[in-house]
Specification:
Largest sheet: 5 strands, mixed
Helix content: 25-40%
Strand order of the largest sheet: 1-3-2-4-5
Distance between the termini: 82 Å
Structural class: alpha/beta
Number of strands: 19
């Protein structure tokens, strides 16, 4: 009897799923994207397109983004080369298809995903390519094996390109699989596997060594250990493919920002200054000692195209030379507190940062005129705590990054929320640029971050993680304010007890 009940329950569930799927089909646009080398996909035809192609490579992009245009060109080139293959290429304009991009968890773009056999939820992530050849290489390596990159090293000895060479005795060793996994993730680089003992002896190496070679010259060697992971190998390769100090330019910006080394030391300097060579030499020498921990970057303040990075760090050209250290995860910035930029001073600064002893540089934009007259109050570093921790106001604060499309997408909602609450004097809706103002409080998650500061004497922050819709935000505020009222009663009682105890102690004295 129990088995019969289970079968009936299972059949009922299947009916529900089928009905739901059928309902989705009715709402779905019946039209398919126009046939071309690259399919134009929308929310209405995505599911049908996915079912039609065993391998669907999708580019999520923003048409007005410089990086998006560059990747789109590479994508179109790859489409021409892949014509007639099992892989079909498609693009989704993430600025128009916001709901679709969100449903597919593609909120940052450009981004490339490979969907296999109609599986909507487990795509493979393709690294952003430097060229169409990168996309072809990535697809080829994904579908291939280590045997595909076994090559005669002598044929690559004259190559100007950096070559990653793995010396292995047995191809079924786990180190080889780690090596090949790294090759898939780095399609812009040449990878070679060799078992030739003469080649190994030529470079004086042993098995399970990874070498970076350029024109047969050894750049760096890495010994793979039993615990070596793909991520560790990728960090080694990407770090040592760059010079110890990389100058920030239009060509190197993407490489710098995508580096797996998240600690960046930036030297802002005039390349025409009399002390440039001396300071650059000291910076370069220090860089050699922190290769896998800190990425060293030079920013020429005389280059007009570097205005955006200087604005981000609030550096003016007359302040150079100076050194800033930033963590690319939390964007907290540190300033080298010294007028002397010699090797030892730079080394001490970097080490104090790694040891957790360096103090963050507190920055604040100027207080905007009439900042508190608009529906959404624009806060800066010097007004943040005073407003956010006002015990008589409930403050809902948006921490945003101005260059982030995801952050800017919240702005209209924030204005709408402020207008909906304009009659409630005890509620403040505000925002702050987290890239231009240091936040002297513990933040959770990435930006944009929506944080509520309840009207309490104690400094408390509630991070909002719900749906970004007006009704949900209003419900959240009301619920937290009710909780805060109860907490406020307890706080008042504790404050009264404290004051009475203090008064009693005073009388006894």
């Amino acid at each position: 009897m129990r088995r019969v009940l289970l079968l009936v329950a299972t059949a009922s569930c299947l009916c529900v799923f089928v009905a739901a799927d059928t309902q989705d089909e009715r709402h779905e646009d019946e039209s398919l994207p126009e046939e071309s080398l690259v399919l134009q996909v929308t929310k209405g035809n995505f599911n049908r397109t996915l079912r039609q192609h065993k391998q669907l490579l999708v580019l999520f992009y923003a048409p007005l983004s410089g990086e998006g245009r560059r990747v789109s060109e590479a994508f179109e080139g790859a489409a021409a080369e892949l014509q007639g293959s099992e892989v079909r290429l498609a693009v989704i304009d993430a600025t128009k298809e916001k709901d679709l991009a969100k449903d597919l968890n593609a909120t940052t773009h450009p981004a490339i995903r490979l969907y296999l056999a109609g599986d909507k939820y487990n795509p493979a992530h393709c690294p952003l390519p430097q060229s169409s050849a990168s996309i072809i290489t990535w697809l080829t390596r994904r579908a291939g094996s280590v045997s595909d990159i076994i090559a005669d090293l002598s044929l690559l000895e004259a190559s100007e390109e950096l070559t990653v060479v793995g010396f292995f005795e047995k191809l079924d060793h786990e180190h080889v699989q780690v090596f090949y996994s790294a090759a898939i993730e780095l399609p812009d680089m040449n990878f070679v596997v060799t078992q030739d003992p003469e080649v190994i002896s030529k470079y004086g190496r042993t098995h399970n060594d990874v070498l970076l070679l350029k024109k047969s010259k050894l750049i760096q060697a890495y010994k793979m250990m039993p615990q070596t992971s793909k991520e560790e190998l990728i960090i080694f390769i990407t770090v040592y493919q760059m010079d110890p100090v990389t100058e920030y330019t239009g060509e190197t910006a993407a490489q710098i920002l995508s580096s797996p080394v998240l600690n960046h030391a930036l030297l802002f300097i005039k390349k025409s200054s009399a002390d440039f060579e001396e300071i650059h030499s000291a910076f370069d020498s220090a860089a050699l000692e922190f290769r896998l921990q800190i990425l060293f970057v030079l920013v020429n303040v005389e280059e007009s195209r570097n205005g955006r990075v200087m604005e981000y760090f609030q550096v003016r050209d007359f302040e150079a030379p100076l050194i800033r250290l930033v963590n690319m995860t939390d964007h907290v910035t540190y300033h080298l507190p010294s007028d002397s930029l010699d090797k030892e001073t730079i080394k001490r600064f970097c080490q104090s940062y790694l040891d957790g002893n360096a103090k963050p540089k507190m920055r604040s934009e100027p207080i905007p005129e009439e900042w508190d007259k608009k529906p959404v109050k624009e806060l800066v570093g010097v007004t943040l705590e005073k407003v956010a921790f006002n015990p008589n106001k409930t403050v809902f604060l948006l921490f945003y990054l101005p260059y982030s499309q995801e952050s800017r997408a919240v702005f209209p909602l924030w204005e709408e929320l402020a207008k909906a609450l304009k009659e409630r004097e005890n509620v403040v809706i505000a925002r702050i640029d987290a890239s231009a103002n240091d936040i002297d409080m513990s933040m959770q998650g990435s930006y944009p971050s929506l944080c509520l500061f309840p009207a309490l004497y104690s400094e408390r922050v509630v991070v909002y993680t719900g749906k970004r819709k007006l009704t949900d935000l209003l419900t959240f505020i009301d619920e937290e304010m009710e909780k805060a009222k109860k907490e406020r009663v307890k706080e008042d009682e504790e404050r009264m007890k404290y004051m009475e105890a203090a008064e009693k102690a005073k009388d006894e004295l």
